[in-house]
Amino acid sequence: MSVSEGQQNAHLHVQAKGRQSASLTVDDQFPVGTVSDRLFGTLVEHLGRCVYGGIYDPKSTYANADGFRTDVMKLVRELGITTVRYPGGNFVSGYRWEDGVGPVEKRPRRLDLAWHSTETNRMGLHEMEKWLHEVNPEHPLELMEAVNLGTRGLESALDLLEYANIPSGTKLSDMRRANGAEKPFNIRLWCLGNEMDGPWQLGHLNAQEYASKVRLVAAGMRQIDPNVELIACGSSSHSMKTFGSWEGTMLDQAYDLINFVSCHAYYQPRVDKGVRDMRSFLASGVDMDGFISDVVACIDAARGRAKSNHDVNISFDEWNVWYTNEPGHPHTIDDWPVGPHLLENHYTLADAVVVGDLLITLLRHADRVRAASIAQLVNVIAPIFVPESGPAYRQTTFFPFARTAELTKGGTVLTPRETGARTSTETYGDVSMVDSVAVRRANGGLAVFAVNRSLDQTADFTITLPVNAQSAESSESVESVKAETLSDEDIDAQNTADDPNRVALKPNTTVRVDEADSKKVHVDLPPVSWTVVTID
User: Fold this and answer.
1) pTM higher than 0.70 for the full model?
2) Residue 392, Cα to own-chain centre: how many angstroms?
């Protein structure tokens, strides 16, 4: 959607009216945890133009021999994606996995009830596995496969696992080989349904029903492959009426059988009488932070009740900014389009700053959030957009994700020790004006990520480097420092097919080492901005 749809007042222009101070003290003595590569996953759902017209478009001049868009694959590599949750999303709750294997010309066309579309099944499990390898041949992306617990259950899940992971010698494994995959796919990550607490979900279950289903399916899958990692549905949002009780009921029945509880969260500005509450929107990370902490509490309480030594963590496998008031196509009995334009949000600078803040929040919980997926990848509420003609381009949200993925993989998150000004919001009260986190990179350097949530105040941001516990004289010193900032005078600025580089990261020339104290680095953070500082 465009800014004018659902964002009814005029564009907001940044005009700094003052300065405030904020600081982050970096201390290696208090690590949070290592950054899992799986934190930089995505969702590819059979929804709108994410698959058909997005990653797969045989008629495009950008398509390779397999029908995959090479311009999209190039941007996916640059984005730093590591895992792909597939094939949904709401779509999976009515999906028959068998429809997507075998000769393409013989695959059936089906109604997709989730998004009122026609599913051609031209893209299925084999094509997805091939795409994951073609995107990055040296380090293929990891598949997070979702199973249908809406209209199906134990038997279809066991069949799919046998088809995918058993080397040979059975009906289904030999069927996979006959369909062109001699070696097993060896899928480790499996989602046990999708948002089953939601009344919108096909085959919606109450907590007790879902818990019983998860226990049966998880136990059965482990009889085939004990090493699978299973993700059970948590609450679809922090605001669900059943939040907490849903997690407790499910975990009490299946705690030792699963590895992850899923979290989903989407954010957009609340509009009241045509006016957007941008201050609260820019502080959306506060809600995500509370959501994660609450789910961790549910998990740990269940672990105590079970007297278990087994670890269960969080897969935040749907998160993003999503303008949910976009109009869809009419639902009629004779109108089931293929790959319709759905949920094609066009993101602004402010949206990108919020995405950057949500990434900071995920990093801050790196000890318990061990997988995450920005939803989705292409066209549908996505960092990559494919216009009707011409090459794919980077949306504003592309930049904080790509740089965070690049700089933090294999790193260690350090406990944030922040001080500084606060800003007022209607939804969350007073919150930190600057939200930040530091990561000790795999190469030994530091990456500091910071968001200025203020609409009109510049932040004088100070980073204090680690002091050696034994000797202050051997404290860390700076060899080089640089900063990049995502900001714009117009917080509603977007990238478009005609102007794909309107919003992009730019060098922040204000970064400097303190002349009086070489263990301090200073940088100015403009209002409504995301900044990364790299220190070697």
Assistant:
1) yes
2) 20
- Determine the Cα–Cα distance for residues 48 and 307; give it in Å rounded to an integer: 45
Residue 200's CB is within 10 A of a number of other CB atoms, namely 10
All structural domains of the chain, each given as residue ranges with its CATH number in brackets, are: 18-26+415-535 (2.60.40.1180), 37-408 (3.20.20.80)
Q: How far apart are CA 120 and CA 109, in angstroms?
A: 5
Whether 45 is a known active-site residue: answer no
Q: Are 370 and 82 in contact (CB under 8 A)?
A: no
User: What does each C-alpha distance from 52 to 48, 135, 178, 184 come to in angstroms?
Assistant: 8, 17, 26, 26
List beta partners, residue 267: 321
Spatial distance between the Cα atoms of 401 and 374, rounded to a whole number of angstroms: 9
Burial (0-12, 13-18, 19+ Cβ within 10 Å), 237:
middle
Outline where DSSP puts E strands in 97-241. Answer: 110-112, 117-119, 142-147, 189-192, 229-232
Dihedral of CA 364/366/372/378: which sign?
A: positive
The DSSP code for 179 is: T
Q: Along the 536 residues of the chain, how does pLDDT read in single tens digits?
A: 344 444 445 577 877 788 999 999 999 999 999 999 999 999 999 999 999 999 999 999 999 999 999 999 999 999 999 999 999 999 999 999 999 999 999 999 999 999 999 999 999 999 999 999 999 999 999 999 999 999 999 999 999 999 999 999 999 999 999 999 999 999 999 999 999 999 999 999 999 999 999 999 999 999 999 999 999 999 999 999 999 999 999 999 999 999 999 999 999 999 999 999 999 999 999 999 999 999 999 999 999 999 999 999 999 999 999 998 766 666 789 899 999 999 999 999 999 999 999 999 999 999 999 999 999 999 999 999 999 899 999 999 999 999 999 999 999 999 989 999 999 999 999 999 999 999 999 999 999 999 999 999 999 999 999 865 443 444 567 888 999 999 999 999 999 999 999 999 999 999 999 988 989 999 999 999 999 999 98
Of 38, 1, 29, the C-alpha closest to 313 is: 38
Catalytic residue among 127, 145, 162, 318: 318
Q: Smallest Cα–Cα separation from 278: which of 3, 94, 12?
A: 12
Instruction: Report how far apart the first and last C-alpha atoms of the chain are (Å, whole number).
Output: 41
How many other C-beta atoms can be found within 10 angstroms of the C-beta atom of residue 129? 20
* CA-based nearest residue to 529, from 500, 511, 496, 503: 503
Q: Which of 45, 142, 162, 195 is catalytic?
A: 195
CA–CA separation, 80 vs 377, rounded Å?
12
Number of H helices, E strands in the chain: 10, 28
Q: Give CA–CA dist 198/190, Å, rounded.
A: 20
State yes or no: is 318 an active-site residue. Answer: yes
CA distance 128 to 74: 16
Given CA atoms 77, 79, 83, 86 in this order, what sign does their dihedral have? negative
Question: Within a 10 A sphere around the Cβ of 59, how many other Cβ atoms?
Answer: 7
